[in-house]
Amino acid sequence: MMNPIVKIPSVGGRIAVKTLAKAVKLGLKHQLDCVCFSARQEILFELPHAVEAKQFTLALNQMHIAVGTADTRNVVTSLPANDIFPKRPWLHSGNYTEIVQSFKHKPRLTVAIVDPRQDFVPIMDSELNFIAAEKEDFWYLYLCLGDAGKPPFIWPDLIDSKSIADVSARIEAQVALGKTELELVELLADDSDLQTAPYGFIPAPIQQNHPQYDGFFRVGGVYWLGIYNAGQRMPLLKLEHLLSVCQSQNINYIDLSTWGSLLIKDLKRTAVDEWNRYLGLNNLNIGPAYHELNWKLDPFNLEHHALKVKINEELQKAGLRTWGLSLGVASETRRIRPSILIRVHPKKLLGRQRYDLYHAKHFNPVNGEYVLFDGHMVQQDLISNLKGLISQYQRQMRIKVEPIQALRRSEKSKTIIYECSVCLTQYVPNLGDPEHGIAAGTAFGNLPLTYCCPVCEGDKSVFVLV
């Protein structure tokens, strides 16, 4: 049976150094060894038994440190990527914190608030995925409810920043009653309290590269440092030392990734030497092989981590490159969206663990569709088939990814669609492009010669009929 876990949620991936220092000091007082960083940007403390977990939680509350509950989910955002990855011009750190702080309920569904131009935080890892639109303060909403292999459902309207918390709460309440995506749209369609806006083109399919998030990186005139520790765990003494270095350099916040790592940002060149000394004193290596960093795992499942170690050893021996892929290990009940998914059977057969091996369609987890590569395998066969699957990916890297189609209430079976040949954004005459002054029902031939793609700004001539 798993030990009780105490969760300290960050605010959109950011936590105050002073707050974390208090929690670490308390952990050392309770003689805890290490802390974990979750995929939902939380700090996790594993306590030996329930009584001590209650005492630990009470002590945190007395220090005015928020504590999550077992059945609630922290709201994930791409705030940590701000200022170090490309972004929407209108989107700043304050946008994320304001939205997260507007949540009056504690979500039981997973929610993500993400900039599509960054590669640091996965786009479709939550059940409610708010993706920043071109229009300032508005967001696309992708629903990934139910089966992990089901394609995302695109909400037919843009959602205003101020309505995200309310929309999330109302969707969650209706999902609990068993409502489908289309029923959700109908139920919320006439709600005058929610601020929405139409959009006149189907968003291009989202694709993400997988970032190298561990090490020193220079952005402009400053540096940021990403620190990943094996197993997504960090000894408390090392974390205590890290926080003391932050305080000595007047660094007030650190950011948490969804990959089990932390970020220290806005470092001046003169500070890099001190951070190198910290890494050396604590025997923290940076810049590990990519196949060490691109995994999605439960930080407390030691069997899954042991499988990861074994697989990485075999990949290294074979010299297989995994750049561009994410890999995940999951139980039957855990929902994750990596490029390649290893599903562990809940029960062993004749004393041996069995596995199923899936890959996302075109190896793009954003599409949400998974294909079974092989099933009911023992570990040796799993690793052999995984090598073959990775080799297949390398051969198919240039395959064009199919766009995710938006589902609309007024959708017709034979809709005329023109597609930008540069970025795959689509113009639908029935919908027009009201955001850019093009009324619904405007035929493509009647568009002004000055019309251009609203995403890549390609001119009208780059659109083709599909």
Automatic annotation (TrEMBL):
Carries keyword Nucleus? no
* Any one Gene Ontology BP term: alkane catabolic process
The answer, when asked if ATP-binding is one of the entry's keywords, is: no
Cofactor(s) in the UniProt record: Fe(3+)
Q: Which CDD domains match?
A: rubredoxin (cd00730)
Q: Which domain of life is it from?
A: Bacteria
User: GO molecular function, one example?
Assistant: iron ion binding
InterPro entries from the entry?
A: Nit/Sulf_reduc_fer-like_dom_sf, Rubredoxin-like_dom, Rubredoxin_dom, Rubredoxin_ET
Q: Which UniProt keywords apply?
A: Electron transport, Iron, Metal-binding, Transport
Domain named Rubredoxin-like: which ranges? 415-466
**Name used for this protein in its record:** High molecular weight rubredoxin
Q: Which organism is it from?
A: Ephemeroptericola cinctiostellae
